[in-house]
Amino acid sequence: xxxFLSMQELNRDDLMHIIQTGIDxxxxxxxxxxxxxxxGALLLFQKxxxxxxxxxxxxxxxxxxYTVAMDWQSSNFSISPIRYEARYASRNCDFIVARLKKxxxxxxxxxxxxxxxxxxxxxxxxxxxxxxxxxxxxxxxxTFEGITVxxxxxxxxxxxxxxxxxxxxxxxxxxxTPIVNEASWDGLLMDRAIGSGLVTRxxxxxxxxxxxxxxxxxxxxxxxxxxxxxxxxxxxxxxxTMLPYQLNRKALNGSTxxxxxxMPIHPGFEIEExxxxxxxxxxxxxxxxxxxxxxxxxxxxxGN
Length: 304
Hints:
four-stranded parallel β-sheet, 9 strands, Rossmann fold, Ornithine carbamoyltransferase, alpha/beta, 12 helices
């Protein structure tokens, strides 16, 4: 059973195949109008979502399939062992897209599901986002050869899956990450990344941007904590620590890399508003590609 939980399940050939298929689907959607005929995806969400929800629902529907959206707290997943609910749910769908708080719960779901489980975001990884990120880079540059990306922000789940994808594809990745999100830390992944020679840690965003084709940033506060009063002290610490690393014109210092952000955006915090709508911004293209990349992923997981 093939699952997609972290991005590390894919070798280079499979990852390239998904990316290239995603681009073909985007250019020729009519060719794939029945590719998921009568296939159903359970969208099991414990966390709020805009892009994951909309892109999977739109994507599989455009290929002739359907979705059933289920809130974790409103379902019996919240009151029964995952292994039992996973076995039942698998008998009613062809894919399970799970957006859960804890990676351990996602692993248990995958261990007992008899259909492919797709990680729609957890505390450790966000591989569907990385698929769209990599597809966007390939779409814009036409190659991964000689490409350098800088990620600036919290070392988190988004960064982890981007790291894994860049190592697999041979992309040079520079990390400007003063804070590590403890729940996201993957020491084995980081050791492999640093050991590959492709991933480096840097202190200066300006120096990193000067060497980069793409600069990518993300929120400093996890979305489930953004309005949480109990998280206020951590939020304030992160804001104060990260403000010198805001992606803005001053930090770029004349460099003109493409600007990336996985959304949702908090202008005036991780990125200045001017860059969001600038000529070099590919943020909306990146967000749109969630749907196309995930269409290709669904085809891959069903063996097409």
